[in-house]
Amino acid sequence: MKALFWRSARFLYGLPDSEIGFCDLVVPLGYGLTIDDELPDATKKTVLEAIRVAEKHKARIVWASSNYFFPGCERVENEKKLALFGPEFSMSPILIGSGITNSVSEAREIKIACQKASLFPKDIVVVCDWPHARSTRLIWRKVFPESNILIRNVEGHWDETHRATLQKSQERWLLACLLRHVALITLGHERVSRIQHPTDHS
Fold it and tell me: What is the pTM of this model?
């Protein structure tokens, strides 16, 4: 029954993967850290999918990491992400944005990093877990109006080890994504940009 619910939820609310003919930037969205300071399952999957897409299309990868779990947590997250890259990855340098507190600030910080590097992407592939896809597309189209935004989905697993309260279960995260989507439409991006995910430091 539970499997049927999730298949139905993905069918009704998820987005299909975009067809990629060309891209010049790939962004794996970040999902913070677990209480053991490891990458959650969704982050590992977004980074690995981003590497695959970037290698295939000879594109750059850029990301921004969370800065609100504890002092220096963005450095830990960056190091864990970089460890997923194999020695065979020979693309152009990876750009690492500043710390972030939510999905809107994430996109904004990445845009700042791109501008500093004189990188003005035409086609951006954003890799996220599927409940996040609709709000991700809204955010990235707003922040990068001059770019074509393409979405690639992963199937992230959420459990009680995550530091962010809303990412401690599949059900909580789906609800959080639905609420974010509604808030973006009704409240606007600026107000949503000021929201920080609640955390549990236990």
Answer: 0.94
Q: Is residue 6 part of a domain?
A: no
* Helix (H/G/I), strand (E/B), else coil: 26: strand
Per residue of the chain (202 residues), give pLDDT as tens.
Answer: 888 999 999 999 999 999 999 999 999 998 999 999 999 999 999 999 999 999 999 999 999 988 888 888 899 999 999 999 987 776 667 878 676 889 999 999 999 989 998 999 999 999 999 999 999 999 999 999 999 999 999 999 999 999 989 899 999 999 999 999 999 999 999 999 988 888 875 4
- Is residue 119 situated within a structural domain? yes
Tokens of 35: 């209480």
Report helix, strand or coil for 134: helix
| Residue 82 structure tokens | 């970089």
Structural domains of the chain, count: 1
Residue 40 lies in a domain: yes
Residue 201 lies in a domain: no
Domain CATH code at residue 161: 3.40.50.620
- CA distance linking residue 162 with residue 181, whole number of Å: 22
Range of the structural domain that residue 78 is part of: 22-192
Element (H, E) at 148: strand 148-154
